[in-house]
Amino acid sequence: MHVAIPLYPRFTALDVVGPYTVLAFAPGWTVTLVAAQAGPVTDDQGSLTLTATASYADVGRPDLIVVPGGPGTLEAMSDEALLAWIRQTHEHTRWTTSVCSGSLLLGAAGLLEGLEATSHWAVLDMLRQAGAEPVSERVVTQGKIVTAAGVSAGIDMALTLLGQATDVATAQAVQLAIEYDPQPPFHAGSPKSAPEGTSERALKLIV
């Protein structure tokens, strides 16, 4: 299985690194970071740079793509080179996926019309602009299009896909290898459970 993850300015690092870590651990799987041109791309914090080792033109038929989100998503929605690559690879993928606001890019590419999809809670309703039905769930599967909620949900999605593509035992082994056993110290990971006022504070961190 060949996985391609596109990078664009101001992506959120965990949207990329979470799925990358899960899928790169899988025996026989390769993961390629791609961008308009091979080279460094800086994340939303401005202090972490990942290197795309291939351009869009170099990677045309991956088995799986994972489109990350981040503050740079809104600008990337008008990046026709990226959107064209998403459309073209989607014709041949086994799965076309997104993490966080990356689903807005799937929508901008015209892939979500009439489908249920999820995203980061702060932009979930924006999916309606692409003709999608927003769903507040951790992972949403609609045929070969799979969308994950905000940031950390990309790990859940990657493990889900790994279990389907290989077997549950392999996915479980990878989960244990990365010791993914969430036990958060606070019950504040959703707007529904977070204390009053937390959503407003969180929005200031991600805008």
Automatic annotation (TrEMBL):
> Which superkingdom heads the taxonomic lineage of this protein's source?
Bacteria
| Domain DJ-1/PfpI positions | 2-162
Show the taxonomic lineage. Answer: Bacteria, Bacillati, Actinomycetota, Actinomycetes, Streptosporangiales
Any Gene Ontology biological process: regulation of DNA-templated transcription
Write down the InterPro entries for this protein, in alphabetical order: Class_I_gatase-like (IPR029062), DJ-1/PfpI (IPR002818), INH-QAR (IPR052158)
Q: Which SUPFAM superfamilies does the record cross-reference, listed alphabetically?
A: Class I glutamine amidotransferase-like
Identification of the protein by name: DJ-1/PfpI family protein
- Gene3D superfamilies the record matches: 3.40.50.880
CDD domains to which the protein is assigned, alphabetical: GATase1_PfpI_2
